[in-house]
Design brief:
The protein has about 130 residues and is α+β, with helices and mostly antiparallel strands. It has helices at about 10-20, 55-65, 115-120, and strands at about 30-35, 35-40, 70-75, 80, 85-90, 95-105. It has one domain.
Length: about 130
Amino acid sequence: MAIKHFSRLEANKEVRRILVRNGVDTARIQFSCHGRAVNFTGILLKEGGKELEIHNVENVFQSLFRLGFQVHCEIENWTISEGMISKKSQKNSGVSQTKTEKANYSSNQGMELDADEFLGIEKKKKSL
């Protein structure tokens, strides 16, 4: 897969385009691009403040990975952890719980996500 090289301005523009295309409220999520890395903080919501569906969140990450971006997330209302994306919800007590709606993929919360693993691409072992 050929990876396009972006300037910082182009990278920010591409990330914003992906977020808007997937209905994300760009006023509630902050991001910054540094080379091929994208850092997300804030709340991931639809335009108008409604919750995103799991497939919208998956589409955002898949689109970023297809372009060769590495992603670091600290998102308040979604848990991105090893092998899944899950939505957090607030219980009356204020304690955060995870709903059962999940998507499987490989990543680490607060660490870079590996695009090949997320997209299900197996890395070929070099044979000597």
